[in-house]
Amino acid sequence: MTTLEFANVTKVYNVRGAGQLKALDDVSFTLTSGRTIGLVGQSGSGKSTIAKILTQLETPTSGEVRLDGKPIPRRGKGLRAYRQQLRMVFQDPFASLNPYHSIRYHLERPIRLDGVVPKNETEAEVRRLLERVRLDADAVIDRRPHELSGGQRQRVAIARALASRPSLLVADEPVSMLDVSIRLGVLTLLADLQREEGLGVLYITHDLATARHFSDEIMVLNQGRVVEHGGADDVILDPQDPYTRELRAASPDPEAFFASAGPRGLGSIGGAQ
């Protein structure tokens, strides 16, 4: 089992002309393989700062991130090995894929860089990944991103994240830029992959409704501080912090949302849209 510890992390930015901005204030949580944490908060709450620190795009001002009890290396082979263990699905499937390269190239590159399979098995692995995210490999493998729908592009982005066979996944608002009609299909895919692959997933969102249905735990972030953290049902059904209650009041009714999709809705959305 892989364990990622985000231990007492504070992040302060120096803002020219405005002094210091504390984006995170003593934030701690533990993500393990096979579990999903929903990280919920409004824009500016610090969610993306956590993602950047986890992916080593930013460093903490204080505190540290540990993988299986050891601090994350800052350079060299150790950092590369960490980045193979933790991958990210970005918010914008239109910007995260290079428009000049084929879908084949996007998936072959991490497979080859990380030596996932022998070179002569690369093609088969690319096709397996596309099928894993419920895309027709023959139909999309030689296309470019602009030739696919938003939902298809995000599925390719998920396949690329899985190409290195990570144990942990950071999904940063993975459906917020997709049409409402296909969001549930992508979330259902992520939930299935998490369960079948035993992934640890940090699901970053502003939507309490989906966080409840796709997370084991929910952590609510407000102005860089964790104001509530517990089991998904406990946080949603019996919120203790006023901010969490405000978020719940502003969210759509999750039972009505998921009931409206129904079995037929899940089937149609789960295709290659």
Decide which structural class fits the backbone: alpha/beta
Cα-atom radius of gyration: 19 Å
Helical content stands at 40-55%
Q: What sequence of helices (H) and strands (E) makes up the elements?
A: EEEHEEHEHHHHEHEHEEHHH
> Mean of residue pLDDT?
89
Q: The CATH topology is what?
A: Rossmann fold
Biggest sheet: strands side by side, in what order? 6-7-8-3-9-10
Which ranges are low-confidence, i.e. pLDDT below 50, for 5 or more consecutive residues?
Answer: 262-272
CATH architectural designation: 3-Layer(aba) Sandwich
Number of domains: 1
Which CATH class applies here? Alpha Beta
Number of strands: 10
In percent, how much strand structure appears in the residues? 15-25%
Q: How do you describe this structure in short?
A:
41% of the residues lie in helices and 25% in strands.
Structural account:
The protein has a single domain (3-269), classed as P-loop containing nucleotide triphosphate hydrolases (Rossmann fold). The chain has helices at residues 47-54, 76-85, 103-113, 122-132, 137-140, 150-162, 180-197, 208-214, 232-237, 242-250, 254-269; strands spanning 3-15, 19-32, 36-40, 62-67, 70-71, 86-89, 168-172, 200-205, 217-222, 225-231. The chain is of the alpha/beta class. The protein is built from eleven helices and ten strands. The longest helix has 18 residues, at 180-197. Helices cover 41% and strands 25% of the residues. Mean pLDDT is 89; it is low at 262-272.
